[in-house]
Structure formats: C-alpha cells, structure tokens
Amino acid sequence: MDLMYSSTRNDKVKFTASQAILKGLADDGGLFVPESIPALDVSIEELADMNYKETAYAVMSKFFTDFTEEELKNCIEKAYDSKFDTEEIAPLVDADGAYYLELFHGPTIAFKDMALSILPHLLITSARKNNVKNDIVILTATSGDTGKAALAGFADVEGTKIIVFYPKNGVSPIQEKQMVTQKGDNTFVVGINGNFDQAQTGVKKMFNDTALEAELDAAGYQFSSANSINIGRLIPQVAYYVYAYAKLYKNGVIAKDEKINVVVPTGNFGNILAAFYAKNMGLPIAKLICASNENKVLFDFFSSGTYDKNRDFILTSSPSMDILISSNLERLIYRIAGNDVAKNTKLMSDLASEGRYAITDEMRAGLVDFYGNYTSEAETAAVIRKLYEDTGYVIDTHTAVAAGVYNKYKTETGDTETKTVIASTASPFKFTRSVMNAIDTKYDAMSDFELVDELSKIGNVAVPQAIEDIRNAKVLHDTVCEVEEMPQVVKKFLGV
Q1: What is the pLDDT of residue 169?
Q2: DSSP code string of 140-209
Q3: 112 noted as active-site residue
Q4: Whole-prediction pTM value?
Q5: CB of 124 within 8 A of CB of 135?
Q6: Active-site residue among 23, 112, 247, 296?
C-alpha cells in the first residue's frame, strides 16, 4: 500500500507522494503531511555501513512509496554527486564536546543544498508519473539560502522555470551576490522592498489565486514550490539525522539505541521538523533543541504555548532565521492537535486574522520532546569567538545561535552527558563579515573578499568553490519591486 498524503486543513482528499510534491502547497492553503510516519526498518548495524546515498534511499523510500526503486535511486544519484565537495556529503566534526553536522558542502554552501539538490529531480519525475504537460514554475520566497540553493538546483532543468523573491535589504552581501549572478535561461531573481515574511505571504497568495492559476494554465504553466513547505524538500532532510546517528554509532561514540540530542538553528521550522520525523521513525533522539535568534517567536511559543507574530521584525547577523511566521510549524500543530483538521484550521485562521494563536494544555503536552531558547546578537558573536579561540574551529552565525542555545540547555537542565549533534547549517564563508568581526573587530576594515581570504587563512580551510565562482561574476538579475507588484512581475517574466 502506498503511503498517502493529505492537507493539514482537509484530510478527506488523499494524494500520492508524487502528487503532493507536484502541488507543493495544498489548494486549501494547508501543508501536505503523511497519513502516518513510517518506521525505519533498517538495523543500526546496516545503517552504519551505508554511505549517504544509501541512507537517503533507506529513508526516502519509506515516504515516497509511489516512486519505483529505479526512479528514486536515479533522483538520489543525480542529487548527491560531485556538486558536493566531500564524498561524505555531511561530515561530523567533534568540537568542544558537541558533534557539528556540516550540512554546507553543497554547491551553495548552505544546508538547503541537502534537499534542493534532489527536489528538481523529484519534481520532474513526479510530473512524468502524473502525465503533466505544463512547464513547472517554481515560485519561492527566500530569507537568503533557499533562493540560491533552489536556483542552483533548477538552473537549466528542462520543463521548469524558477522565480525567487528575496528581501532587498535583508540578506548578507554574499547571499545576494550568489543569487543575482545566477546563470540559467530559466532563472529569475527579484528583490522586494519588504521583509521575508512579506515575500513569503506574497508567494502564498499567488499559490491560492485561482484566476492567476487559470491564466498560467492557459499559457502552459503551473506553480510548484521549492520552499520547505514542499514535502519533497522536507523528507530529504530526515536522511541526514539518520546518517549522523549511524556515523556516531559506527565511530564508537554511542552504543546501540543510545539516545542523542539534536540542536537545530530554526527559522521556518522545516529542519527541526525533519529531526522530529526522524525521531518518530524510531531514531533514538532524546531532546529536539530549537534554537532561535532575537526573532524569538518560536522560543516564546515553546515557553508559553502562544504563537504571536505581532512584534518588531529584527534584522540579525543570522538572516536565514529572521522569520516571524514559521510555516512548517503548522505540521507539528496539526499533529499535537491529534491530526484534527478543524482545530488546526481554526488556529491558522487566528494567525491570519489576529497574528497569534494559543494552543491548549493538552496540545502543549505533545511538545515534551522539544526545548526552545534563543541566542542574542552579542551572545552569538561571543560563541563564535570562544569556539575559535578554544579549538580553532570556525562556525557561521546560524550555527553559533544553535551552539549558544545548547550551552543554555546544558546549564538549565544539567544534561551534559547526552551526546549532541548540532546542525551546522551554513559555511562561515557565507557570512564572513559577521564571523570575522565576532573573532576580532580589527577585520571590519577589510572588503568582503579580503575577509574571505583572511578567514581561509585563520581557519585553515580552503575557500569554497561557491565563493570563488562569484568573486568576479556579473550581476544578471536586477529587478526590484513592491510587495503588491509580485504577481505582475511573475506574469511579465512568463510572458502571460
């Protein structure tokens, strides 16, 4: 029997994995969730001997059951190839008592590559399986990393076009340069005069615009999403937690069935939700530690049971987490509501109309696996500096938010014994100015690319190819628009 998917706002209509991947977002505005979380039926001894591709297949084949073995293995083979600068794909680094899972060895040096390298292949395979004749238009809002990773994944993939919206003044200089220099006849990049939440809301509105959908269909196009709301983005992320656990076991760090903690720097909640899914597949995870920056909407939610986006939006040195609407949280809310569509829909309606919702005490009991906290800007810089001074290991700002929260977790709970994996979500080369300033303010006088070379020297690591590629790259995308102009810009790009 195939594992079927339904919307968090309507469980009456069922979809196969390939149909859910194609649609991206459900017609009712909800997110696709599997009807049940499948068990991981591979022993730890078998997993310990698997490489990354084999692990990915062991995990994804449980969720994407309408893909043949050949189809899924073909997608995995194309995704995790020489685009990654290490054969391991996701190495583990032991530093200062924690295990940093380096998820940034892909073409855009951020963890989004782990899922966005495979999504185009899943999408094209899904389109073929469902006899789709239209070209797929990937519509994405980005807080910095998703955009470039999606652009790199979809560039010149036949039968697709990709349009990325990002906050014009809300990403790092390196992130922006990576996006606006993207090659590919099917790629389009737009800066909006607004923040990430406004970009994301604008994209969701277009997905739910039936008149626009009809116009596109007549022109031979249909929308899909590369944001982490797409189940084809979420599920590939489950694999790296399974891989990390198996490697700790193989290396003798943990015993069989020994529980570990996982710390995830969190914005849109997709990455930590993948860890939650891994735990529910049977992976021995004790605590899921949710790390926020000063936009601490998730910390406040875990502390109080109230999600409230009515607050100032703060631009921080960890811009990929500058988010006040954590879209993937809806999947967790639906689950702790007992998979109750009506309850979830009411809460999401409250969020849309009032900007806040409160969960019941019974639902809060379903959050027992989670611990939330946040790291301030000053604390983030201090973590980077101390880790470098103590070990010589350099981490980026997002990873530092996670490490800072892990330190608070240990202090608060006294749990210093449980082996802990910290999701290291971006290369420090992506945020050189913030990272180098944290280590020593003397670096602030240097240009962005002087900082890159200096970071390579002090960290004793080679400059990633992704950075070398943009050093002298030409700007190819210079469109900027207001939030309300987003649909017109899309139609103009597509000639509709």
Answers
A1: 87
A2: EE-SSHHHHHHHHHHTT-TTEEEEEEEETTSS-HHHHHHHHT---TTEEEEEESS-HHHHHHHHHHHHT-
A3: yes
A4: 0.91
A5: no
A6: 112
